[in-house]
Amino acid sequence: MRSDVDTHRRKLLLSAGAVLGVGAMTVAARAAEKAPPGAAFHEVAEDPTKELGRAVLSDGGYGLRSQFETEVKTIFPNPSPITSWSFTPLASQIGNLTPSGLHFERHHGGVPTIDPAKHELIVHGHVGVAKKFTMADLKAMPSVTRKHFIECSGNTLTEWKKPTAKNVQVTHGLLSTSEWTGVLFSTLAREVGLKPDAQWVLGEGADAAVMTRSVPLEKMLTDGMIVYGQNGEAIRPEQGYPLRLVLPGYEGNTHIKWLRRLQVSDRPFMTKEETSKYTDLMPDGRAKLFTLQMAPKSVITFPSGDMMLPRPGAYEIRGIAWSGHGRVKSVEVSADGGRSWRPANIENTPEPMCTVRFSCPWIWDGAGATLQSRCTDETGAAQPTRDELVKVVGLNSVYHYNAIQSWAVASDGGVTNVHA
Ligand SMILES: Nc1nc2c(c(=O)[nH]1)N[C@H]1C(S)=C(S)[C@@H](COP(=O)(O)O)O[C@H]1N2
Ligand SMILES: [Mo]
Fold this sequence. Notes:
InterPro entries: Ig_E-set, MoCF_OxRdtse_dimer, Mopterin_OxRdtase_euk, OxRdtase_Mopterin-bd_dom, OxRdtase_Mopterin-bd_sf, Sulfite_DH_SoxC. The chain has about 425 residues and is an alpha+beta fold.
């Protein structure tokens, strides 16, 4: 992936160099050295008002970000086509939407390249008439545009037993928010008709993993979306181009990417993802199946692990909160490890199954402090402490860790991941 960006960047610079009549190799070589991913390198003028800037096409017709913006996804060690992850840099996110190029990724069989002109979605099973939909068919249908987060059920899985990941990108970065555009499943259901015994719908991906999950029909009809748009453009290859399922508030693995088939049935299909992989092992040795909804959760992104506060004084604590049950109702912040709480400001209008950004002013007196945030959603569900969570679900589970996160600020200003 990186090398693609590098090649792209080098090409842009070669063409820019050619246009300007500059020694292309020198420019390209310097750019490869200095420009961060997603940016082209440009010399900084001493006084930008005293020389002309670039004309519109100098970035190749598709805009790049400033060369001074350097945040990138963290890649989980040893990515392979069989299994790979990358984490969104939450601490440097500005606003509520994740830039598409920084959306976290989780692939079970690599990213396929799919020609949208040849891609079809088959809807069949317990339906009136089975149908195939081309991308053109789907784009011609009534569409909706909605903001929702996607969170991998494995987000924060390193934190069950002891504080492990160093920074918020790795503790919580399997979470991203986009504006999605596509067709509601209820619209497709009207096209094909549903048999009276229809209860579940299987989604299937066209990747090498042929990822399959069963989804309750009720969820599919309530707000299940077949999406082709992300933040104003086609969804990224890594997000499932040309088509993916979005199930607002459901665990990430149910949002089938490269979606090619929906099979309606009277029962769940009990695929390997739902009988072994994405189950939650309880203290009594039994496993919970179909733990689909993501619970209320929040995290402080500033200050957070691996940061350094330069001096005591006034700070704005900032973070992100979300819930798979509905809208975020309130967020509280503690600077004393949960002994006292203050309401945070919510910076954007809460939308169902969508993140909010929160902030809370804080005067740091220079003594050690433990920062925490706690989310409550519109159903009244609140984020538990780690002790409360472990008391209920034990320590055998891998997925669905939503406990309150603690960051310790030491008297030297260093911030670390702790269990309070
Ligand atoms: N076809 C297919 N769909 C898939 C996956 C996959 O590997 N193949 N990964 C799932 C998992 S585990 C998650 S968390 C989300 C990740 O979506 P993203 O890569 O767009 O962030 O997609 C889900 N859908
Ligand atoms: Mo996932």
